[in-house]
Amino acid sequence: MGIIIAGIVIILLVWWAISCQRRLAVIDENINNAMAQIGVQLSSRFDALTALLDLTKGYAAHESHTLIETIKSRRSVITATSTPDDVMKQEGVISEALGRISMVAERYPELKANENYAKCMNAVDSYEKMVRTSRLIYNDSVTKLNRELRMFPTSLVGGIFGFRQRDYLEAVEEKADMPTMR
Fold first, then answer.
1. Which of 149, 167, 179, 180 has the fewest CB atoms nearer than 10 Å to its CB?
2. Helix (H), strand (E), coil (C) string for the chain
3. 2-177 adopts what CATH topology?
C-alpha cells in the first residue's frame, strides 16, 4: 500500500513539474514572439526612414548621404533572442535619424509640404505605435515570467529547466523631446 501511495505522489510531482515547465515555456515563447515583433516593426521603421532619406537627397544631398551611411553602419536586426539593450540602441539610431531629418525639413519647407514626405512620416509614426504596443506586450510577458520564477516552488522547476528572469524594455526618454515631424 505504501508503494502505491509513493508512486501516486511521484506521479503527481512529475505531472506538476511538467505543468510548470509548460507554463513557463509558453510565457517565455510569448516574450520571444514580442521581441521578434518589435524587430519586424523596427525594421519597417528603418525602411520608412530610408524612404524619407531618399526624399531629402534632393534638398540636402551631403547630409542625406552621411545619415544613410550612419544608419547602415549602426543598424542591426532585432530577433527573438535580442536583449532590451539591443532594442534601445536601435531606437536611439532611429531617434537620431528622425531628429536630423526634421532639421532638414525645417530648412526646406517645400520638403515638408511634399506629399510623399507626409506619407513616409505617417508610416514612421504608424510603426512607432506598433512598436509601443509590442513593447507593452513584451513587458507584460516579462512580468508574468519574472513573477512565476520568483515564486516557490515554481522557481525550482524554472531553475532546473534553465528559465531565467528577463529584463524589461525601459521607456526611451529622448522620444519625449523629439520634435514634431509634421
1. 180
2. CHHHHHHHHHHHHHHHHHHHHHHHHHHHHHHHHHHHHHHHHHHHHHHHHHHHHHHHCCCCHHHHHHHHHHHHHHCCCCCCCCCHHHHHHHHHHHHHHHHHHHHHHHHCHHHHHCHHHHHHHHHHHHHHHHHHHHHHHHHHHHHHHHHHHHCCCHHHHHHHCCCCCCCCCCCCHHHHHCCCCC
3. de novo design (two linked rop proteins) (1.20.1440)
